[in-house]
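user: Here is a favour to ask of a fellow structure person. I have my own habits and do not want them to colour yours. Could you put it straight underneath, so I can go through it closely?

assistant:
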Amino acid sequence: MKSFALSLILLLLQGNGIDAFVSPSPRTQYAVQSKFHYELSAKKGFSSTDDVSASDTKQRQAAIDALQDWAKNSGILRKDVDVASGEPIIGGGLGLLTSTNVEPNSVLLQVPTHLTFATSTSKLEKNPIVEDLFEDPKAYINAPWWAKLSIDLIVCKHVNSNRESPNGDKVDMTPWIESLPSTFYTPIRWNEAQLDALQYTPLTSMVKAQENLTKKIFDQLSKAVSPSSPLSKALTYDAFLWGCDCARSRAFSGAYGGSAFDPKPYAFTLLLVAAYVGAGLGSLEQASNGAGLVLCGSILKDFVFPKLFQSKKYIICPFIDMANHKGVGEDANVAFEYFADGFSVSTRSDVNLEKKQEVFITYGPRSNDALLQYYGFVEPGNAHDVYIMPPLREWDIDALEKACGRTFQPGRLQKLENAGLLGGTSLGKDDDDDNIEEGVANRGRGVVVTRAGGIDPAIITALRALVSTAEEWEAAGEAVGNFVTENSGGKENERIARLAAQKAIELELENKETTLEEDESTWSKRNILGLSEEECLALAFRIEKKKLLKETAFALSLK
């Protein structure tokens, strides 16, 4: 009974602000999101420092110096790396540049947790400073992560720019806030003509869904703000959209894991255990049982429950957000430092960096759909790029039959329908708007083509069945599932199935308003033509998509 009482007291103490963080490893890796433009960016005039006036260069350097001074005074540790602009930074924008040679496993940056902006899907995490600005805090609490971070940034910019360190010192976040972009060129801001220039219905559909959801969340939040709140005037749609763009392009995410390591509750527990045993209230074994329950409580709260409910944390980390993205072969990783209570950028174990070399991070396998929609740039030769063709039910069967030299057998399409291989419709459903996420824009269950794997193997299976003769169908047991493996319908069936896939891709390219060659010619003259940021981005995007289709068609022709 005494042991139970001690356990109950310790657990209650823990539940009243004495929290602990127990990490499965001292460094938790995250998939990082970034804001920067890559080579096919629309940043005309930033590819060379010759295009930037001397006064602009001075102003930019002064802003960089102010940011680095702020970082130093705010407790951000920086070693062998600086914020830089112009060459050799990719696209001539801002990035992290080494100031000396850097060896593998070197920590370049450490940013204290109290300087970050964080939210999560866990109901355990609260933000009372922001919640108190709402008449109905539930609107903020239940908002998507990007909307909550948008509000947090607006509050920091217009209401209260101070952050409090663990020792009670105030840190003014204004220099970092002022380093954020004031203008974004993400497709949610584009007009109809600019979206049509993408020549890609799946992304256009996703952008419209994103816009609908963003406006819906903004209406809910603006109605929930107290009229007397200082947030009331600051929360305009333009400000909210700016905050959403900052959040989506600068945040990184990982599994929710409570807070960092805090020795105080464990020291207090040991003190109580010593007092409990020293006063003769019970045995050491009973006291140990109580302390064990406290540890179990921490593990349950910080790891078991978040894993069970699939909680996720989203963080904007000042200064680290200056690192640019590389889809494959990044130089450094972002990690949570368990004992230091902060976030770091460290070079990979297999990477040596030379002086004046840009430091790249990655934020995971993102297609150009996601990169353009949420970050405002296009990655050339993106290894993770994807093209969503119309679903098989919308393919031109007559054209495929002509290309294959075969008339497809009656009833085969119904067999594919029964097997769920004809897909949905190109546009998808409007009721999907609330569930959009960064990723592949495949709301209509279309045919997926990837740079890494080519056309979806399930579609090749469907085509083997579709093009099969009566004899091939019978030999395969008259079942679509028996066409899964290569040559399962015979060598000639395999050749015809791949020919059908190749023809479908060629038809997709023929339906475009411009050819790849025409687009590449326009790209080479973009500065002469005076193309806008949006026009350049749309052009870069469709060039990459057409390259992906051509590569896939060529690969199919070789087999």
